[in-house]
Write a structure and sequence with these properties.
- It is built from 7 helices and no strands.
- By secondary structure, it is mostly helical.
- It is globular.
């Protein structure tokens, strides 16, 4: 009597799970391209300004960093990646520019569909605006995005 090859079932189950995971990654990456840049590729000028801005931000030259972020977004039709939007908001906040910080965070929430406010609530760069009603509106926007785009996401996972 020949036994059933259970190893094949386990193999195909693992492959099916891997396939679904790969599809999820592809979907998320394609979604981010379409969501943030509408399928356009980022110009080299954008990358140049982002590299300068990131470097200046790390050196503590916050006003100059925020100017380079502004130039990067301008070079790309006022679009940008979510990470760059977040870092520009940090630069504006650390430079003490309350209005630009709030405007950038609002753009980050709306255009990037950001839905996890934990990072904003713990980042010390935003400590001076946490009591602001405009900051509370950004947090509310993120909570609404969470309900709309990731209702079943478990933060604790």
């Amino acid at each position: 009597m020949q036994s059933f090859p259970y190893g094949i079932i386990i193999y195909f189950t693992c492959m099916k799970t891997l396939y679904r995971f790969c599809l999820l990654l592809i979907t998320l990456s394609l979604g981010s391209v379409n969501t943030y840049s509408q399928g356009r590729s980022l110009p080299s000028e954008y990358y140049s300004h982002i590299r300068s801005a990131d470097s200046l931000l790390n050196k503590g030259a916050y006003t100059q960093a925020s100017e380079h972020y502004r130039k990067a977004f301008l070079s790309f039709g006022w679009s940008g990646t979510p990470d760059d939007r977040y870092n520009s908001a940090r630069a504006f906040a650390l430079a003490g520019n309350r209005d630009s910080t709030i405007a950038t965070l609002q753009t980050f929430c709306i255009k990037a569909r950001a839905w996890d406010p934990r990072k904003l609530n713990t980042d010390t760069a935003f400590s001076f605006i946490r009591t602001s009603p405009a900051f509370a509106a950004v947090i509310d926007c993120m909570k609404a995005n969470k309900e709309k785009y990731a209702p079943n996401f478990n933060y604790e996972w």
